[in-house]
Amino acid sequence: MERIANAVRPRLARAGAAAKPRVARLARALRSRPPALKTWQYTAGAATAGLALAAGVVTAAGPWDADGQRTAERDRAVALERTGGTDHGRSAAAVRAPRPAPSAGPVLLGLDGATSAVGTKKAAPDGKPLSGVLEPLLDVSALGGTRAAAVVDVATGKRLYSSGAGTALTPASTTKIATAVAALSALGPDHRFTTRAALEPDTGELVLVGGGDPTLTAREKAGGTSRSSEAESGGGWADLRELAANTATALGKRGIHKVTLSYDTTLYSGPAVHPIGVNDNLAPVSALIADEGRTDGSSSGPAPRVSDPAKDAASKFATFLKAAGITTTPPGPSKATTRAQTLATVSSPPLSDVVERMLTNSDNDIAEALARQTALASGQPGSFDGGAKAISARLTKLGLPMSGASFHDGSGLNRDDRLTADLLTALLVTAGDPGRPGLRPVLTGLPVAGFTGTLADRYTDSAAGVVRAKTGTLTGVNTLAGTVVDADGRLLAFAFMASGTADPVAAESALDKAATALAACGCR
Questions:
Q1: Which helix (H) or strand (E) holds 226?
Q2: Residues classed as catalytic
Q3: I want to staple 282 with a disulfide (CB 3.0 to 4.6 A). Which of 80, 161, 354, 364 is the partner?
Q4: pLDDT truncated to tens, each residue of the chain (524 aa)?
Q5: C-alpha–C-alpha distance, residues 195 and 288, integer Å
Q6: Selection from 259, 134, 115 nearest residue 511 by Cα
Q7: DSSP secondary structure code for residue 244 in this structure
Q8: pTM, full prediction
Q9: What is the DSSP string of 280-326?
Q10: Which residues of 443-475 are buried (b: 16+ CB within 10 A; e: fewer)?
Q11: First to last CA, the chain
């Protein structure tokens, strides 16, 4: 209150001084008034004096600012602001006042580069060179013999740092960024994958038709969402139990209580097993699969898988039908005809949600499903090869730097995959393009340092919540690509790639230090 009074008192004193002559003249006029004045004349005189005094004070208080605020009000606001918040410059009179408390920095710069509530600067600050910050952190033995790095300002597209950025290296799971961009570009963020039960009119055969939905779950619900997904996706995964219940109702209306059950997986083609072989990181890829073929009740990460996901899903479907009063034969493979009548369907969440789940948890099963779906949408076979060709074609169509890039799957488990740091940062910048809002799940799905997904246990003591990045790990390969908000509020895309690493823990730590330094730097 004292600081407010000190700020306003000089203005009020000047206002009083300026108004004093006018008040004196009015007083003399009133004293010399004729004695016959009536009450209304006294009232009018007093009102005139009051108006004159008010006009004098307003005039002395200063003109109106361009934004409609009087200068006296502005001074008062300045006095109030000195109690805390960002220090936007201190006048000589304010030097002795307590320094303001620091304000939290902006979280995100507007992707169009506009100054707004989420960012305060358009241009790069006059800090130290970015190369001087990153090079000592990336030039360490923990990152092996071959490294590549790139940093780009998302709002402007300007490259801020580059070291071997055009060298194609094994990307590991950062390949999923490319898969996500390609799938969203080919299918759109609102696309859903549908599993259906269809009845053949001639034979009475019931066919469970796989639509390539990687979210289909057979697990018991809890509170309206499947246990496998409620904690990480907010629920909404397609429910095999619901499909069975609705199918049983439709069959009952037709007076059918016993059927021959088959399953159709012909949407996909080619080998089902990834070139790495049977592996806990990925089930055999099938157009019909429930809970990613997991046998341990998990919802993410490595886990033992069933050898035949389609047969497993169809067997569970038969169990649910039996509970609903429909007896079936043991299920076997088949193909639904064009005459088959759809009895019931369940669909996945929108592709935008599926992409976010894939990136956050580095979900290989979803990645391979999206690669095949991208292939089918692009006129390619739904196979490993078809998916790889479709991803490459989609990214080329987007005008991205594809020199040296080579795809062999959608998950990055194939060691023959090759990407550059240039391409990874270009993918992230493209996903942040205001003209391509359908690609935004690529950014929103990135794990948050210290909070979600594959970064939940990293950055616990630095840059938590500021770095968002996709991790990549294979034996001898460590990568990190994502976005970070630097000290000056700029949204930066970065890609750090290392090959020939010997200690994955040390390599991850080195990459995290580089990303943390990028967050803390106000660099040129």
A1: strand 225-226
A2: 173, 176, 362
A3: 364
A4: 454 445 445 444 554 554 455 445 544 544 444 444 444 444 444 444 444 444 443 444 444 443 333 444 444 444 433 333 333 333 333 444 444 434 333 344 444 443 333 333 333 444 578 999 999 999 999 999 999 999 999 999 999 999 999 999 999 999 999 999 999 999 999 999 999 999 999 999 999 999 999 999 999 973 343 333 333 433 579 999 999 999 999 999 999 999 999 999 999 999 999 999 999 999 999 999 999 999 999 999 999 999 999 999 999 999 999 999 999 999 999 999 999 999 999 999 999 999 999 999 999 999 999 999 999 999 999 999 999 999 999 999 999 999 999 999 999 999 999 999 999 999 999 999 999 999 999 999 999 999 999 999 999 878 899 999 999 999 999 999 999 999 989 999 999 999 999 999 999 999 999 999 999 987 76
A5: 8
A6: 134
A7: H
A8: 0.76
A9: TTBPPP-SS-SGGGBSSS-SSSS--B-S-HHHHHHHHHHHHHHHTT-
A10: bebbbbbbebbbbeebbeebbbebbbbbbbbbe
A11: 42
Tokens 């959608």 sit on residue: 410
